[in-house]
Each structure stands twice: as structure tokens, then as C-alpha cells.
Specification:
Length: 314
């Protein structure tokens, strides 16, 4: 029984290591990445079936839920059948995981934002930060650009990187695929875009539940590599207790920087409370955040590997 379990989970460990290594060392061009095509399909589907403002909220809910099911279900079912009927499923699992774990693009764009901020190229920095955040960036100050980039990098580390690895380790590659597609759909149908609030709600509610376990996992990894006492204290002191505020408070407290605050979406300002530490974000804070995320990624990979090894032994 032990040998059988080991044979079952060892390929999964190799798939995990391969996906992590590819994400660390190679950048899949966005023009040919499978998720780029999915972003286009999801965006087009949203624009095509989005009801007008004349329809009731319930019609928006139904349209949003059905659009996600109709668009994502065929792809998930086809890939699931392909994986489970293949003679060598590990090959297809590896391709799926390499495609899903695309956090390297976020880190690359973050590095470009850092370079622009460091050279005081504010206009270019605003253009770069627009590629990794949904907020409006045309009026951001130097501090605002750095803060937006830090928040985006950290939240995508929790939701994207930790999320894909968590669901792969716990439930397998198809679960990771479903999670990543739902996350992608939620980001493309952003609930703060004009007309999207009710339409995006079904997917948003589902994703808000699915991101909790990996976010806790990633938060734990962050505390391990930073200052856990300050991070937990900042979460306790946060005035707003929603998920995003608490996670940003943890990072801000651990690095002693202020995060959160007002943000513009679709020409409307949302006033969020500032959370975290006492110092304003500056250029060096971007370096510290990048270093923290890299260390936390190593912890996440180590823990995930240990879990797969434990599954093999048990």
C-alpha cells in the first residue's frame, strides 16, 4: 500500500517542481499563452451576454452564472477526460500546471515598475502598473504607484501562486484548473467596472470562498519569513476586517509600511482604511516586498512538497 501511494504521488511532486522551476526561470510569451486566449474569450463573453441596466439584478446574476458555466465547463470536462484517459497523464498534468502557474509575468511587470520608479519615469511607471492592477492609475503619485504595485504583487502571490499550488496538492490538476479559470473570470469581470456589479457577483462569491485556504497558506508563509508579531498585531489593529484589508495589514505590519487607502475604479473613488505599519511606502519598500514574496514562495513550495511526500508515505 505504501509503495502504491508513493508511486501515485511522486509524479505529482515532479509536476509541482517542474511548474515551479518553469515559472522561476522562463517567461511564456503572453501572445502565445493559453490564458491570454481565455482572457479574451471571457471578456468577449461578458460583453456579449451582459444585460442592460434595464434588467433586474436577478437577471444579471443568472446571466453571469450561466455565462461562466457555458464558457468554462466544456474546457474543464475535455481536459479532465484527456488527463484521466491518457496512458501517461503526468505529461498533460505538467502542461496544465505550467500553464496555470503564470505568476512569473506578475513578477516581471513588477520589476519593470520598480525600474521606472527608480529612474523617476512616472508616466511609464503608471503604464506598467496598469498591467498588473485593475485600478485606475493615471493620477497616481510616486508613492501611489509603488503602493499599487506592492499590493498587486502580494495579493496575486496569495491568490494565484498559492491558490494554484494549494488546489493542485490537495485535489489535483483539474481542481487547480477550475480554480484558476474561476479566478481569471473574476478578474476579467471585475465587479467595480460599470454594469458588472451584479453580473460578476456569482463568480465573485464563489472565488471569495475558494481563495480563503490558499490566502491563509500564503499568509502563514509570509509570517515565517518576516516579523510574525508585527504582522499579526497589524491585522488586529486594522479598522476594516475584510479579507483584503487583513492580508494587506499583515504585509504592511511585517514590513512596517502603510498599505490600503483610497483607490479609483471606473472614475469612482473608494475610500479604504490605511492598514499596516507607520512608514510611508518608498522605493526601498518595493525591494523588501519583492524579497519577501520570493522567500514566501520558497516556503510555499517546501510545504507543498512535504505534503505530497507525506501523502506518498501514508
Amino acid at each position: 500500500m505504501t509503495l502504491f501511494a508513493s508511486d501515485l504521488y511522486f509524479p505529482s511532486l515532479l509536476v509541482l517542481w517542474l511548474a515551479v522551476a518553469v515559472d522561476a526561470l522562463w517567461r511564456w510569451p503572453q501572445s502565445t499563452h493559453p490564458l491570454t486566449f481565455m482572457r479574451y474569450l471571457i471578456r468577449q463573453m461578458g460583453q456579449k451576454v451582459l444585460p442592460s441596466d434595464n434588467y433586474a439584478a436577478g437577471q444579471h446574476y443568472i446571466s453571469g452564472a450561466l455565462a461562466a458555466i457555458v464558457l468554462l465547463s466544456p474546457l474543464v470536462v475535455c481536459l479532465a477526460v484527456l488527463v484521466y484517459m491518457a496512458e501517461y497523464p503526468v505529461f498533460f498534468e505538467a502542461v496544465i500546471m505550467v500553464s496555470l502557474l503564470d505568476f512569473g509575468y506578475q513578477r516581471q511587470q513588477y520589476k519593470k515598475v520598480m525600474a521606472c520608479v527608480g529612474r523617476n519615469k512616472k508616466s511609464l511607471a503608471r503604464e506598467m502598473v496598469k498591467t498588473i492592477t485593475a485600478r485606475q492609475c493615471h493620477a497616481l503619485t510616486d508613492i501611489g504607484i509603488a503602493k499599487a504595485a506592492i499590493e498587486s504583487l502580494y495579493l496575486k502571490f496569495l491568490y494565484l501562486y498559492c491558490g494554484v499550488i494549494f488546489y493542485f496538492v490537495v485535489f489535483g490538476p483539474i481542481a487547480a484548473l477550475v480554480y484558476r479559470l474561476l479566478l481569471l473570470t473574476s478578474w476579467q469581470w471585475h465587479y467595480r467596472e460599470i454594469g458588472m456589479h451584479h453580473f460578476a457577483l456569482p463568480v465573485r462569491k464563489l472565488v471569495s470562498v475558494l481563495v480563503l485556504p490558499p490566502a491563509i497558506f500564503g499568509a502563514f508563509a509570509t509570517l515565517v519569513v518576516t516579523n510574525p508579531i508585527k504582522g499579526i498585531a497589524a491585522m488586529h489593529k486594522a479598522r476594516q476586517k475584510d479579507k483584503t484589508s487583513l492580508l494587506l495589514a499583515l504585509l504592511g505590519g511585517a514590513l512596517n509600511i502603510k498599505l490600503g487607502g483610497p483607490a479609483m475604479y471606473a472614475d469612482k473613488k473608494y475610500r479604504h482604511a490605511r492598514v499596516g505599519g507607520v512608514n510611508d511606502v518608498k522605493y526601498s519598500s518595493m525591494h523588501h516586498t519583492r524579497q519577501t514574496v520570493h522567500y514566501a514562495m520558497a516556503v510555499v513550495c517546501a510545504v507543498a512538497s512535504l505534503v505530497l511526500l507525506a501523502k506518498g508515505v501514508l
